[in-house]
Design brief:
This protein has 305 residues and is mainly α. 74% of the residues lie in helices and 0% in strands.
């Protein structure tokens, strides 16, 4: 049985759980890279390295850039490369100079809130019922609690807004990807990373000059972020959105905060106040309400015909 927004299938559930873990480590990785590299070069480096790997891998898998055979497909890939890859990565890199990594992860919980009205307008076939609306409103309440005074003992409002703006870029990108023409996922990911790198590398030179590495661990962190949370995650993201829809994909935005907090506390030693955990609990409750029907359908035994 093929996957769809109403029946995403077991494989897509496995993929979004994996994405939740992978993306949950991204903020920690970028924070570590910031100890020895500048924000624009981290952004350019992660996108450039991902493109350097994905372009030849796609060709070897039979999903090279030659498979992108229409002008409309390239327009979509270009949009994703610039506005759902380069721009949010730059916002997050700068934002993480202002806020702890766990905050950036929890801020990604705003993606479903932003996806919902876009889906209602541009992708109504995915279906928006009362449960999803209630769940998203609950998640929004958690986001307000998160953004309020005292959510963290450190960080600036500008940094917090940058993280939420990055989430907005992801929300728009999810809906655009869902409406894209048929494009092999590796070719889609490789093309968007390549276009993002073409834009970011000259910009990094212009804004920050040649890259300077002041701490070797920062380079390893950058390589990790480029390989998994950028390159591999881009392929998985395209696959999930095109088969199960952007609303289903938004489930990762509830999983990412949980893992970001876990990694921030255990590996980065970030001290987080109780308000953050209340916000996280409310945001996670939203997923249970908004996706309760889909979860029940996945767990219900299917009869053979």
């Amino acid at each position: 049985m093929s996957a769809s927004p109403t029946q995403p299938g077991a494989l897509n559930w496995v993929l979004i759980i994996a994405l939740g873990v992978i993306w949950g480590t991204a903020f920690m990785g970028v924070s570590t890279a910031l100890t020895g590299l500048t924000p624009w070069w981290i952004t350019a480096g992660r996108v450039g390295l991902a493109a350097l790997i994905l372009v030849p891998v796609g060709a070897l898998m039979g999903q090279g850039l030659g498979k992108v055979d229409s002008a409309r497909a390239w327009v979509v890939i270009g949009f994703i490369g610039l506005f759902s890859t380069a721009l949010p990565f730059a916002l997050l890199s700068w934002g993480l100079t202002q806020v702890p990594s766990a905050f950036a992860g929890v801020a990604m919980g705003s993606v479903p809130l932003l996806v919902l009205p876009l889906v209602a307008i541009f992708s109504p076939d995915e279906g928006i019922g009362p449960r999803r609306i209630i769940g998203v409103i609950l998640g929004f309440a958690g986001l307000i609690l998160l953004m309020g005074p005292g959510a963290f003992g450190e960080g600036t409002l500008a940094g917090r807004l940058a993280c939420v703006a990055a989430a907005a870029c992801y929300a728009v990108g999810s809906v655009v990807t869902r409406r894209a023409p048929a494009i092999p996922p590796v070719a889609f990911a490789a093309g968007s990373m390549l276009i993002g790198a073409i834009a970011l590398i000259p910009l990094a030179f212009l804004l920050e000059g040649p890259p300077e590495l002041t701490r070797p661990a920062a380079l390893w962190a950058l390589i990790y972020v480029a390989l998994l949370p950028t390159g591999l995650a881009a392929i998985i993201r395209v696959r999930v959105i095109t088969t199960a829809g952007s609303l289903f994909m938004s489930l990762t935005s509830y999983m990412v905060p949980l893992w970001a907090v876990i990694f921030g506390v255990t590996l980065m030693g970030e001290a987080l106040p109780a308000q953050l955990f209340w916000a996280l609990g409310i945001i996670l409750a939203g997923i249970g309400i908004s996706q309760s029907r889909a979860i029940a359908q996945q767990l219900r035994p299917r009869t053979r015909t």
